[in-house]
Structures are given as structure tokens and as C-alpha cells.
Write a structure and sequence with these properties.
The protein is mostly beta strands. It is built from one helix and eleven strands. Strand 10 and strand 11 form a beta hairpin. It is elongated and about 55 Å long.
Length: 158
């Protein structure tokens, strides 16, 4: 495993540990809990653009560099996403921001292969499917990215 992935996994475990006791009361399939790594975004390997916005003639692309999600057996989840932004001006010059990592968390429910992630960080919910070791989630944009959506494909680690 790469050092960034190990650090992400440890951070997720630390963030989720206190929340595990407040999970949603439901039956979670034994194969669901685990650590899932982001492997594809909008049908492209990483890094890949997740969101785009335009303001005052300047285009901003949010590029996701990596991510991981932990699903626990009590119906709680936490995710860590590392991204940067590229600003393109009218004259096509570009400025790239520093990398930053953000955490998100909430609860989840499953029914068959369907999964709903309730986001307690930003509010709202995202839906997807969990088939074998592959989790596919359609993430709905919020704030500046409202009205956009991205498809995130994560694979469960061994």
C-alpha cells in the first residue's frame, strides 16, 4: 500500500471510531463493512475532474487525486478525499491550488445491492450500488456545484 493510502485509512478509522456506537439500527450484510478506495471518477482513472464552475470569466475544475471510504458494521461511513483546483482564465493561463484533504461522514442504509449514503457533513444523500467488492455512488453536487453529479467507483481493499 502507498503511504498516502495507509495514512488515509488510519485517519478514517480514527474519525469513525467514536461514531460507531451511534449507527443506524439495521441489518448490514457481513460483506459490506470495510475500506473502499476510489479508483475511478466519471469513467476516468484518477486524477480526474469531479466538478466544474465558472465565475467572472474564470473556469475552476476540481480535480480529485485520491480518496477512501470506510463503511462500518453499524451503518456509519466516513470518507477522505484529496483534491486540488485548477483555475483557467480568459487568456487560457492556469493557476493550480495546493492539494487539500477533506473528510465527510454520515450513516448509510442498504437494501439488496442498493446503498444510500446520508451525508451529515454537507446534508443530503447520495445513492449507489454495492456489487461484490465494487461500490458505485452517484454524488450530487452542493453549493457552487449544485445541479452537477459525479459517478464515483470505489473498490474494497483486502
Amino acid at each position: 500500500m502507498r503511504p498516502r493510502v495507509v495514512a488515509s485509512t488510519l485517519l478514517l478509522l480514527t474519525l469513525l471510531a467514536p461514531a460507531a456506537s451511534t449507527g443506524v439500527a439495521q441489518e448490514i450484510a457481513p460483506s459490506t463493512p470495510g475500506v473502499y478506495l476510489l479508483v475511478e471518477l466519471n469513467e476516468k482513472s484518477l486524477p480526474s475532474v469531479s466538478w466544474t464552475k465558472t465565475s467572472e470569466g474564470q473556469r475552476c475544475d476540481e480535480e480529485v487525486l485520491g480518496g477512501a471510504m470506510l463503511l462500518d458494521s453499524a451503518g456509519r461511513w466516513a470518507a477522505l478525499v484529496t483534491a486540488r483546483e485548477t483555475y483557467t482564465n480568459r487568456d487560457d493561463s492556469q493557476t493550480v491550488s495546493d492539494e487539500r484533504s477533506e473528510t465527510f461522514s454520515g450513516s448509510y442504509e442498504t437494501s439488496g445491492d442498493r446503498i444510500v449514503l446520508y451525508d451529515e457533513t454537507l446534508g443530503g444523500s447520495d445513492e449507489g450500488s454495492l456489487t461484490g467488492d465494487v461500490l458505485v455512488v452517484t454524488v450530487v453536487g452542493a453549493g457552487d456545484f449544485e445541479g452537477q453529479s459525479s459517478e464515483w467507483v470505489l473498490r474494497k481493499t483486502e
